[in-house]
Amino acid sequence: MNIEDKARPNCAVVGVFGHPQASLIAYYALHAQQHRGQEAAVISTVYFDEKKQKMRYAYNRGAGLVLDVFADNKIFSDVLIGSAAVGHNRYSTTGSSSRANIQPFNMSYHSGILCLSHNGNLTNTKTLRTQLINEGTIFQTTTDSELFLHLIAHSKKPTRLEQIKEALQIARGAYSLAIINEDSLIVARDPHGVRPLSIGRIKLDNGKYAYIAASETCAFDIVNAEYIRSVGHNEIAVINQHTLETGEIESHKIIDKTPVAKHCIFEYIYFSRPDSIIFGHRVDKVRRKLGKNLAQEAPEIPKEGEKIYAISVPDSGNTATLGYAKVNQELGHNTAFEIGLIRSHYVGRTFIYPGQNNRAFKVKTKFNTVKGVIEGRNIVVIDDSIVRGTTSNALIKLIREANPKRLAMRITSPPITSPCHYGMDFPSKEELIANHYKTEKEIGNAIGVDDLHYLSVEKLMESVPNDEGIDYCTACFTGIYPIEIEDNSLKKK
User: 12-259: CATH homologous superfamily?
Assistant: First the structure.
C-alpha cells in the first residue's frame, strides 16, 4: 500500500562521458535524483579490458536506495571502471519489480556494446512485443525498455546512430534515454518531449570538460556540473571525443518534422525537485506561481480581526505555499506562512499491529503536526494533488487532532480524472476520488475539510512557461492524450 496519496515518479536517468571517475559521478547524480525512484538502482560502465585487449561493459545493480546498492566503495574502484557510465533509479510503471527488470540494460551485439537507461512509457509496447516475438526474439524482461535493445539490434542500418534513430522512430510514447557505447554518450527525448532531460559539463583538473546528462539538474549541482541546456524534444544528441576536444555536441532529429512539444505538466506540479531546472525553466519559480494563482482564484478569507495560517504538505507543497501566503496577504487577508507539518524522510517498511488503522498509522510515520501552530487557528493546507483521497483523508484527521479552529485545503492542480500512459503511476479511473464526487464541496466533505478548492486548468496553464513551440500534456486532468496509444477508446488531440 502506498504511504502517500500521490502519483509516483517515473524513474531517473543519468549519463556521464569523459570523466575518469564516471561511475562515481553517476552515483552522486542518482543520489540527488532519489526522489524519482526508490525501488532499485543500477550503474553500467564501458571500459577497455587491458588483459583481453577489447572493450567491455560492467554493471552493479540491486533493489533499494542508491546508498544501499553501492555501499561498498570497492565497486567503483574494482568493478565500475571506465570514463563512460549510465545509471538509473527505478520506480516501476511497466513490468514487475523483478531483478531482471532493473535497468540500465546492457548488450553486446553485431555493432558493439550498448548500455541503455530509459525514463518514460511506450504506448505501442504490445504491438512491438508481439511483432518481435513472432520474429523469434526472446525477451528477458517484462518492461517496455527492453524493446529499444531489440529494435536497435534488429536494425539493418550501417551505423549505430542510424540504428538508434530507426528504433526511436518505431517506438511510440514517452522516452528520455541515456545510452553509452565504446566511444560516445547518446541522449534523446521523444518527438513530443514528455519527460525531461538536460545536459551539463564538469570541469576537470586539466582544464578540460567531461559531460553529464540527467533527468533533473539537481544531479548537476551535487557534482559541480554546469548546466548547458535541455535536450530538445525530437532530438538525439551525441557527446563523443570530438565534443571533449571542441565542446560541440552533435544534434540530430528523430523524425523530420518536429511536432509541438507536450511536456508533462506534472513535472512542475510535483515530480521534480524545486531546485531543478527542467524543460529549460526553474521548478521553484513555477511552483511559486502555482501558489500565487491559487490564492488569486481561491483566497482564504478570515473573519474580521482573525488571521489565516498557511501550512504546506511537505516537501512538494512548500514552495507553492510561500506563493499562496504572499498573494493572500497582498489581497488584504491577514496571512502567515507557518510550518505546521513535519515530515520524516526515514520511513521504511511499517509493521501494523492487530486492530490498528493501517492508513492512519502510515501517515503518522511520515508526518507529525506542530500543535502550537495549528491549535485554535484558521488553517489552510496547501498540497499539490489528491489522487485516491484515502491518504488525504488520513492526513486531515491527523491535523484535526491538533484542534484547528477551521481547516481549509487548496490544491495546486486540477482534479485528476484520468490515468497516465506516459510514465506516471496514476491508478485507474475507478480509483480516482474526483470520479466519485461531482463537486469540490463533496470531495472536501469526503476528506474532512471545511472548504476545498482545486486550481483550474486555465490558471494552471497560466502558471507554467509558455515558450514558442511548447505545449503540455494535461491528460490526467482533461482525459485528452496527445500521443497515440494502443487503446483506441482514449481521446486524442
Answer: Aminohydrolase, N-terminal nucleophile (Ntn) domain (3.60.20.10)
Q: Which residue matches cell numbers 587491458? A: 50
Q: Quote the strand ranges of 318-469, DSSP E.
A: 335-337, 341-343, 367-369, 378-383, 406-411, 451-454
| Residue 430 CB-density burial (10 A; 0-12 exposed, 13-18 middle, 19+ buried) | exposed
* Domains 12-259 and 286-463 agree in fold: no
| pLDDT interval class at 423 (50, 70, 90) | confident
What does each C-alpha distance from 262 to 57, 104, 174, 285, 289 come to in angstroms?
A: 35, 25, 10, 20, 20
Examine the residue annotation and report whether 473 is marked as an active-site residue of this protein. Answer: no
Calculate the dihedral angle through the C-alpha atoms of 262, 268, 273, 277, rounding to the nearest 10 degrees. Answer: 60
Specify whether the backbone of 491 is left (phi greater than 0), alpha (psi in -120 to 50) or beta. beta
Residue 158's pLDDT is 96
Angle between helix axes 146-154 and 125-134 (nearest 10 degrees) is 50
Domain covering 286-463 assigned CATH 3.40.50.2020 in the classification: yes
Nearest of 205, 214, 250 to residue 88 by alpha carbon: 214
Which residues are within 8 A (CB) of 11 and not within 5 positions of it... i.e. 6 or more apart? 36, 37, 88, 89, 90, 91, 93, 118, 119, 215, 423
Domain boundaries, the chain: 12-259, 286-463
* Region at 18 (left for phi over 0; alpha for psi -120 to 50; beta for the rest): left
The single-letter code of the amino acid at 130 is T
- What's the chain's Rg over C-alpha atoms? 23
* Per-chain mean pLDDT for the chain: 92
Helix (H) or strand (E) holding 237: strand 235-240
Report DSSP state, residue 217: T
pLDDT digits over 299-355, tens only?
999 999 999 999 999 988 999 999 999 999 999 999 999 999 999 877 655 554 555
Q: Is 224 left (phi over 0), alpha (psi -120 to 50) or beta?
A: left
Find the catalytic residue in 11, 218, 264, 420: 11
